[in-house]
Amino acid sequence: PNQLTVLGIESSCDDTSAAVVRWRKETGGEILSNVVSGQTELHAAFGGVVPEIAARAHAEKLDLMVEAALRDARVTLKELDAIAVTAGPGLIGGVLSGVMCAKGLAAGAGLPLVGVNHLAGHALTPRLTDGLGFPYLMLLVSGGHCQFLIVESPDRFHRLGGTIDDAPGEAFDKTARLLGLEQPGGPEVEQAAVAGNSKRFPFPRPLLDRPGCDMSFSGLKTALLRARDACIKREQGLREQDRADLCASFQAAVADVLAEKSRRALAAYLALNPPVPMMAVAGGVAANNLIRARLEAVCTEQGTGFVAPPLALCTDNAGMIAWAGIERFRRGETDDLTLSARPRWPL
Ligand code: KG4
Ligand code: ZN
């Protein structure tokens, strides 16, 4: 076909989202609509996403999101070519809600169903936003994920390494919690770090002494906790400047680790002699200005292009799922109504 219009559905964590994306042979992908409804307030009191609450909220919101996505795109169900849905990995209740919704729509409208791996959705986004060709290097850094992938085709991802414990976003969120800042912690910590001294606390840079691209961020949290308690003990409370210095020192440690491991991942990728060397980022942590700048510097130093899609497409959204669905569908890959939801689904 010369043109495809696909509805995407995403509900694997705490965002309920639906989107319509159109692909044209001459012009590539175009997002016609992409609506996202978050659940931050629902989980705020619990200090983390509660799976049961998330699943119920998805089930309540999905129909409305699909309706809004179709309306915004000025597209009817009949004009769609397929329905794409996140089939995992993620919180199983949420994934199931999305898969059930997609199956109902596909069966009702007689449309093909395309199950999408959520991580593939993130990893393929730079092809939608910047038309990247294969292979490119991807760093996926979010609240739940942290890995380097060489993206070779819509369904071939070579994993170079990743976190062996926490994801960086999770570390930002925990840091914020330890310092009495709001959730999600990333933007709060970044903001507080502006006025801070990043050299005051020599936090660890785990695994830098070991070869390879694996990372670790859980030790950082323990170091931060100790430094915080030392400040509190010394001054009978946490002063504004201490908080800023802790945030700046923490952020610098995360940025150092990501930059150095990116340098190594880039070397492994460049050894493949890619025709157009490109590195892209995805995930909420890609919003961080220091981290973004450090990664871009590593790329520039190695003669590699650097792509950071707009933030709304870096974080969880159904636009990336619709796009990944288009990529699969164009290769003739579809699923039937036996498609199952998978809590774990490595690329
Ligand atoms: O991709 P995302 O929206 O959701 C998933 O985790 O799948 O990423 C959210 C994560 C949160 O942990 C949040 O604290 C982090 O991204 N984040 C940031 C920034 N903005 C969001 N981390 C560091 N700096 C930021 N500016
Ligand atoms: Zn995600």
UniProtKB/TrEMBL annotation:
<feature type="binding site">
    <location>
        <position position="316"/>
    </location>
    <ligand>
        <name>Fe cation</name>
    </ligand>
</feature>
<feature type="binding site">
    <location>
        <position position="122"/>
    </location>
    <ligand>
        <name>Fe cation</name>
    </ligand>
</feature>
<feature type="binding site">
    <location>
        <position position="288"/>
    </location>
    <ligand>
        <name>substrate</name>
    </ligand>
</feature>
<dbReference type="InterPro" id="IPR017861">
    <property type="entry name" value="KAE1/TsaD"/>
</dbReference>
<feature type="binding site">
    <location>
        <position position="186"/>
    </location>
    <ligand>
        <name>substrate</name>
    </ligand>
</feature>
<dbReference type="InterPro" id="IPR043129">
    <property type="entry name" value="ATPase_NBD"/>
</dbReference>
<dbReference type="GO" id="GO:0005506">
    <property type="term" value="F:iron ion binding"/>
</dbReference>
<dbReference type="InterPro" id="IPR022450">
    <property type="entry name" value="TsaD"/>
</dbReference>
<dbReference type="InterPro" id="IPR000905">
    <property type="entry name" value="Gcp-like_dom"/>
</dbReference>
<dbReference type="Pfam" id="PF00814">
    <property type="entry name" value="TsaD"/>
</dbReference>
<keyword id="KW-0479">Metal-binding</keyword>
<dbReference type="GO" id="GO:0005737">
    <property type="term" value="C:cytoplasm"/>
</dbReference>
<keyword id="KW-0012">Acyltransferase</keyword>
<dbReference type="GO" id="GO:0002949">
    <property type="term" value="P:tRNA threonylcarbamoyladenosine modification"/>
</dbReference>
<feature type="binding site">
    <location>
        <position position="190"/>
    </location>
    <ligand>
        <name>substrate</name>
    </ligand>
</feature>
<keyword id="KW-0963">Cytoplasm</keyword>
<feature type="domain" description="Gcp-like">
    <location>
        <begin position="30"/>
        <end position="323"/>
    </location>
</feature>
<protein>
    <recommendedName>
        <fullName>tRNA N6-adenosine threonylcarbamoyltransferase</fullName>
        <ecNumber>2.3.1.234</ecNumber>
    </recommendedName>
</protein>
<comment type="function">
    <text>Required for the formation of a threonylcarbamoyl group on adenosine at position 37 (t(6)A37) in tRNAs that read codons beginning with adenine. Is involved in the transfer of the threonylcarbamoyl moiety of threonylcarbamoyl-AMP (TC-AMP) to the N6 group of A37, together with TsaE and TsaB. TsaD likely plays a direct catalytic role in this reaction.</text>
</comment>
<dbReference type="GO" id="GO:0061711">
    <property type="term" value="F:tRNA N(6)-L-threonylcarbamoyladenine synthase activity"/>
</dbReference>
<feature type="binding site">
    <location>
        <position position="118"/>
    </location>
    <ligand>
        <name>Fe cation</name>
    </ligand>
</feature>
<keyword id="KW-0808">Transferase</keyword>
<feature type="binding site">
    <location>
        <position position="173"/>
    </location>
    <ligand>
        <name>substrate</name>
    </ligand>
</feature>
<keyword id="KW-0819">tRNA processing</keyword>
<feature type="binding site">
    <location>
        <begin position="140"/>
        <end position="144"/>
    </location>
    <ligand>
        <name>substrate</name>
    </ligand>
</feature>
<keyword id="KW-0408">Iron</keyword>
<comment type="similarity">
    <text>Belongs to the KAE1 / TsaD family.</text>
</comment>
